Amino acid sequence: MTTTVSAYAATSPTEPLVKTTIERRDVGPHDVAFDIKFAGICHSDIHTVKGEWGPAKYPVVPGHEIAGVVTEVGSEVTKYKVGDHVGVGCMVGSCQNCDNCKAGLEQYCLGTGMIGTYNATDRDGTPTQGGYSQAIVTDEKFVLRIPDSIPLDKAAPLLCAGVTLWSPLKHWNAGPGKKVAIIGLGGLGHMGVKLAAALGAEVTVLSQSLKKMEDGLRLGASHYYATSDPDTFAKLAGQFDLILNTVSANLNMGAYISLLKVDGTLVELGAPEQPLEVPFFPLAGGRRSISGSMIGGIPETQDMLDFCAEHGVTPEIEVIEASYVNEAYERVLSSDVRYRFVIDASTI
Ligand code: NAP
Ligand code: ZN
Question: Which ligand has the minimum distance to the alpha carbon of residue 119?
């Protein structure tokens, strides 16, 4: 027995998303079922449905920034009860036994690998389907508690965009006395600005133009530069402890690596289709590092949500009806989003 719920799905890399129905499994002993209230639109949803990271398993219901209200819990569930505000991010499963899972870094699971919230295969062999839908059933280990002070529409983007920036900021000790640059002021980037500023770092935005400068400074940046201006790279050479790159396209990596201090780190968060080209001299000529980081583990996601509640950090969102999703995708692709689209799931 399963429950049928409405959803929006992509059926091919080129066609628009369409309304459909999907099945949600019955609530198992360790499962939490919840009504989805809001689902954020991440650029990863677009990469996936367009097949840019490899062929997708169509039909695919995207969405891994999911917030809602618990409707049923399994017999063994202890953490949640009916009526609780909860969320699910990018993962719905992992082996739970490997060193990385035990360390709370389930996204780097060595056993089964993390099971993605959509476009993956669940433990029971069925395809996982994401948040552009009315309800979801998830193992309680991958369910997050949303603090009461964060409205559900604003909580949704924290589940991916929030934690994807939080994890490297914490790992590389962003805080007072540290100079952090964020490349790209989109969904991820704007959360990076807010979180890095709340952690006490000095934040610089590196955007393609100065169009969003007023916003960037209001969100917590101290400096804002256009990367279309070659002077930017001369002025900022050797300045940053940490650079977080959220751009979904391939950049001239050498130019950005040169902006790091000695021993500084550039962390690649954007996931472009083509491999990155990293030149030797800017990297070695400053003992600089380039790293990558993928979302965040379950414990750090909960830490981030609690931090956001305590510090009043929430995303800037535009709530949309589900039928607007294809237009929203076009707007994300043209960097015309301030700063995250969030689907009102009651319109699905
Ligand atoms: P987004 O809202 O589209 O933001 C990306 C920003 O990058 C844009 O707003 C734009 O900022 C800048 N940009 C876009 N195209 C550019 C180009 N051709 N050249 C230079 N800058 C450009 O996307 P998002 O949802 O934040 O996601 C960003 C990337 O991160 C995607 O590739 C996504 O798949 C990836 N991602 C990775 C993780 C992870 O775990 N590592 C998690 C989630 C998402 P400006 O207008 O300010 O220049
Ligand atoms: Zn995402």
Answer: 2
